[in-house]
Amino acid sequence: MHLAEPDEREAYRILDFALRTGEILLSGGAGAVDVTATTIALAQACGLRSVVSEVTFTSITLSYVRAPDVAPVTSVRLVQQRTPDYTRVTEIHNLVDDLVEQRITPATAMARLDEVAHRRHPYPRWVVTAFRALLAAAVAGLLGAGVLVTGIAFATTVVVDRATGALSARRLPDFYANAVGAAIATTVAVAVMVADLDVRPSLIVASGIVLLLPGVTLVGSVQDAISGFLLTASARAFEVFVLTAGIISGVAAVLSVADRFGVALTVTTQPAGQLGDVPVQALAATVAAAAAAGASYAPRRALPIAGLAGLLAWGRSEHSARPGSTRRCPPEGRRCCSARAPTCSPTTRRRRR
């Protein structure tokens, strides 16, 4: 289908449509390469043939080159908030596919974009908090925590999530929100230590800061680096460093105060608890993966798939870490050996007579 060249006003309208789409993708956790390809595809589907897209960490720029001797039409949009929402990202990808395949008109696509942009998140805020608390409790179970520590991790994560959410709503930088959240989890661990409960306080800290870890940002940084968007990859990597530094600062601050008050800080590496058996750990791995997907506003149909993926990944890692598992050895006349005997012994070769 051949589309006539739009005038300048219509070009600005199409560029704004593509920029709004790219903003939802970039803020929802998509990589720079996906945002670039999507914005260009949308502009071309709406009649703008020569479009240049530039994506940085906080902005998207589109330029429509009308002719070599005419100034291009350029529009810029800033991405101020970044909240992973894979339901919106999925809906945007479906919208783009329908428009590019000419199953809908540009006007219908713009109307659908308005609906997606103004639609609320698929889960209420308290459901997301429950997902994050389930993630922390499942991680505690995977680390060998008992019932008491698992319950404490669940309750602590609820407090951390509500506190960091309130700070983010007040536009406080994520560095300070992560520091406060890590300080809350560490304070609970120190209180458990003071109470002299027969638990591992380190598990409370580890499970309490799981939701603060910038996993989505780290994955996006690696994806952008592989795709050649080194500027965006560097910005994402530095954000990972800053957010991690906030977590470390919160933990270190509370431990320093506790040490000044004479609290004995001990770390044990002995596994503890009653949830270390294989069936419960398999369930914990499934719940952790599904809860992590739900905390990122993944579509409901994707939650069972995410849980199954987590179960398979845990099963593979459990099989590899099992003492009786085998590994491959160098092929030069050596046989496979077990994890208990890490060195391979040469085979005895019989000469043929």
TrEMBL record:
Major location category of this protein: membrane
Cited InterPro entries: ThrE-like_N (IPR010619), ThrE_Dicarb/AminoAcid_Exp (IPR050539)
Membrane topology: Multi-pass membrane protein
Assigned protein family: Belongs to the ThrE exporter (TC 2.A.79) family.
Compartments (UniProt record): Cell membrane
Region Disordered, annotated ranges: 319-353
Protein name, per record: Threonine/serine exporter family protein
Transmembrane segments: 129-155, 175-195, 202-220, 240-258
Family matches, as Pfam families: ThrE
Keyword field: Cell membrane, Membrane, Transmembrane, Transmembrane helix
Taxonomy, superkingdom: Bacteria
All copies of domain Threonine/serine exporter-like N-terminal, residue ranges: 16-257
PANTHER family xref list: SUCCINATE TRANSPORTER SUBUNIT YJJP-RELATED, UPF0442 PROTEIN YJJB-RELATED
Lineage: Bacteria, Bacillati, Actinomycetota, Actinomycetes, Geodermatophilales
The keyword Cell membrane is annotated on this UniProt entry: yes
Organism of origin: Blastococcus brunescens
